[in-house]
Amino acid sequence: MTENAVPAAELYTDEFAVDPYPAFAKLRVDSPVCPVTSPRFDSYLITRYDDAKAALMDPRLSKDLYGPGQHFLRIFGPNSEGLNKNMLNSDPPEHSRLRQITSRAFAPRRLEALRPRIAEIVAGLLDRIVPDGHADLMRDFAIPLPMMVIGELLGIPDKDRQTVLEWTQVIRESGSSGRPPAEEKARVQEAQAWLHGYLTELVAAKRIRPGDDMVSMLVAACDEEGVLSERELVSTTFLLLFAGHQTTADFIGNATVALLTNPAQLDLLRATPDLLPQAIEELLRFDGPLPVASPRIATEEVEYQGVRIPEGSIVGVVINSANHDPAQFEDADRLDLCRERGPHLGFGHGVHYCLGVSLARMEAQIGIGELLRRLPGLALAVPPEELRRLPAASPFRGLIELPVRFTA
Question: Name one Pfam family in it (predicted).
């Protein structure tokens, strides 16, 4: 680490949790490749658009956290090993093999057939809250919607989904409970162990009684085709479960807040519903749910913006900073739903481009479209600065609660 390294505690403040974009703007100008120190691990943050895009494609920045060096131990801890050996944390050719297998579940025809069911889930969730005139949109809508969808896709029995959701939320909300750090760590480890055990049992159940679902498809790839190991099978199931609902839920929450705090843009979208697909892209650019791409490891010394990043360093590509880079986006800090669809990095870039992008877009378009149609007078029930958010150092940008009111 260099002498100008920034302590994580100075960067990830309460103010940062509310609005990280001023800090990102400062980093882009003063330290576009910023070394950050923390008790868990040190890292380098890449914050400008052109550098971020290049880094996401740089083969010297490896995603293989389980190769030489076992970097996952520094980042996730030993209890995560059974859940994170998947395509997200691998390089080609292993990544290519795992992605090819998993991509079968996201075939366009299969996803399009799901559209009526997503609309049905959205309608059911809104039916429950419309009569009340108020709701916590995270608890009542944004979180259950993608969880119900991915639960059906994976073949998780309906009776288990609420319990699965509760354990995933322990991981998502880590650091926000107010528990002492040691107790919080133990709770997260308990959640990881429970989910690993549950998914292992789910895989075993699908072996006995397969269905038309993703897990059954992955079991067949493991048992019949021999192209997936047992560890990869369970870990890939976890990746699909967590990635399949976490980021979509946080995006719906962030997008709702962005619209409610930009009333002219909200009115435009209500008046022009055909603008919704374009609006989804701009909302994702404006305040995405994954501020920093999942960690990369420098397999050799690399240099960005004149800063030498030593071999073995952890590198974080700051997607949300790149998406606010004025060198790439005019008036980048302004929400503009009419902005021409540009090459934002909200879904990543390169070989690790989000596999579930079509499903995420479909859920967001149906969910946000119906939310605005069925909840007239939708408004925040508390000032924006009082919204409870995930901790500043969380890998996710999202809300714990989203209290709103509307006309019943």
Answer: p450
The mean of the pLDDT values for the chain is 90
CA distance 195 to 10: 34
Q: Which amino acid is at 65?
A: L
DSSP conformation class of 384 = G
Which residue has tokens 């302590």? Answer: 7
Continuous segment of H or E residues that includes residue 191: helix 181-208
Task: Determine contact, residues 143/408, Cβ cutoff 8 Å.
Answer: no
Show the tokens assigned to 261.
């705090």
Q: Tell me the pLDDT tens digit for each residue of 338-359.
A: 988 779 999 999 999 988 899 9
SS3 124: helix
- CATH, range 6-405: 1.10.630.10
Task: State the Cα–Cα distance between residues 287 and 257, nearest whole angstrom.
Answer: 10
- Cα–Cα distance, 30 to 23 (Å, whole number): 10
Point out which residues pair with 389 in neighbouring strands. 399
Q: Report H helices in 12-157.
A: 14-18, 21-30, 49-57, 72-75, 94-103, 108-113, 115-129, 137, 144-154
What pTM, to 2 d.p., does this model score? 0.94
Q: List C-alpha distances in Å: 325 to 2, 168, 286, 333, 343.
A: 25, 33, 11, 9, 12
- The neighbour count for residue 347, using CB atoms within 10 Å, is 19
